[in-house]
């Protein structure tokens, strides 16, 4: 049976990039995988949230908000195991064991560390550097078969496979299952609305570039109406958008929100300008995202209910993690 596992950092609110790239797939898989008798597990990666400074009160608040957002977006805590990483100590424990299997040379190749540390490599936290090993532990703990993520996480999952393979070889075991990344076909990489060479992310300096799920309807619509485009008309085929990255990005977002193919959407707008396209996109986004925001706000009224959801999820996750952690400890000679 399939075992689907994925995580999201609580730092920064859910935005259109991680919603379309990851969370929308998560809810779809919840239905599909469960119909086949599989299991879906989603977690708030609060331990990964520590790799860059965050005030404790903010981390607590954002973990609660991210949980509410995921539930509002359709993750059903009665059907999926929904938890936060910190409540399942096995993530940290396995991570230490895997630190001794992963190689420094492997981590040195990780592009996300290079991007995030920038010129200040010496001043980056060890956690930021070691981030992908904790991520490997996150998935290897659960015999995960599939990991739905955006394209930017693909390299980290390849590392998780390398770590699993080396562990299995070095300790002559079949303990770890090799996880397959599942990159969203509809929205592998959503780009900034101001600069289509940068991915949409909370660390982007311009507020206008990121549509957040907490934005009001007015703000969402405004961000799309002011999104950067070019003066040309929309063409008849996708190929003609090859060197128009802003236009291509808006088309991708429209299609992903509408659950249609980009070619199909283009059929409606070929020969029209962005003056016609952008208001429709703004309306569509408000119609899809507004209800999620409203539900999230409603759920945030009862913080203890959210806490209870995470507690229940963590309890189930701890049960599933225990035998795999134990297996790793045994394989390495830690159990006497
Ligand atoms: P995070 O929190 O940055 O993002 C969560 C998910 O959203 C995807 N994503 C995007 N997809 C398309 N376009 C974008 N602009 C965009 N921005 C974000 C990410 O690829 C991700 O799937 N390291 C992970 C969290 C994590 C994890 C894991 C994921 C921790 N442990 C184990 C899978 C398995 C991260 O920082 O994602």
Automatic annotation (TrEMBL):
GO terms for molecular function: ligase activity. Keywords: Aminoacyl-tRNA synthetase, ATP-binding, Cytoplasm, Ligase, Nucleotide-binding, Protein biosynthesis. PROSITE patterns: AA_TRNA_LIGASE_I. Its EC number is 6.1.1.2. L-tryptophan binds at residue 138. It holds the Pfam family tRNA-synt_1b. A motif ('HIGH' region) lies at residues 10-18. This is Tryptophan--tRNA ligase. The gene is trpS. It comes from Sphingomonas insulae. Coiled coil: none annotated. Its main location: cytoplasm. The keyword Transit peptide does not apply.
């Amino acid at each position: 049976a399939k075992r689907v596992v994925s995580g999201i950092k609580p730092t920064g609110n859910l935005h259109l990039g991680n919603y379309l790239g990851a969370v929308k797939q998560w809810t779809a898989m919840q239905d599909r995988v469960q119909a086949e008798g599989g299991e879906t597990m989603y977690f708030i990666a609060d331990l990964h949230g520590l790799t860059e400074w965050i005030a404790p009160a903010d981390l607590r608040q954002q973990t609660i908000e991210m949980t509410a957002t995921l539930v509002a977006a359709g993750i059903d805590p009665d059907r999926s195991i929904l938890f936060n990483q910190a409540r399942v100590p096995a993530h940290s424990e396995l991570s230490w064991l895997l630190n001794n299997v992963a190689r420094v040379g492997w981590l040195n190749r990780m592009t996300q560390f290079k991007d995030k540390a920038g010129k200040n490599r010496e001043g980056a936290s060890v956690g930021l550097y070691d981030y992908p090993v904790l991520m490997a532990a996150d998935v290897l703990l659960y015999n995960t078969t599939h990991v739905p993520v955006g394209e930017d996480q693909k390299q980290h999952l390849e590392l998780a496979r390398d770590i699993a393979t080396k562990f299995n070889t070095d300790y002559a075991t079949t303990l770890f299952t090799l996880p397959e990344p599942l990159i969203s076909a509809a929205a592998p990489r959503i780009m900034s609305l101001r600069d289509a060479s940068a991915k949409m992310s909370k660390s982007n300096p311009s507020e206008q570039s990121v549509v957040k799920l907490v934005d009001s309807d007015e703000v969402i619509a405004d961000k799309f109406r002011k999104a950067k485009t070019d003066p040309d008309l929309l063409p008849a085929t996708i190929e003609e958008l090859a060197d128009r990255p802003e236009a291509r990005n808006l088309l991708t977002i429209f299609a992903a929100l509408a659950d249609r193919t980009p070619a199909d959407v283009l059929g409606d707008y070929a020969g029209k300008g962005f003056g016609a396209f952008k208001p429709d996109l703004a309306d569509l986004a408000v119609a899809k995202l507004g209800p999620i925001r409203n539900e999230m706000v409603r759920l945030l009224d009862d913080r203890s209910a959210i806490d209870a959801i995470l507690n229940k999820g963590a309890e189930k996750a701890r049960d599933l993690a225990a035998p795999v952690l134990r297996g790793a400890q045994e394989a390495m000679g830690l159990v006497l």
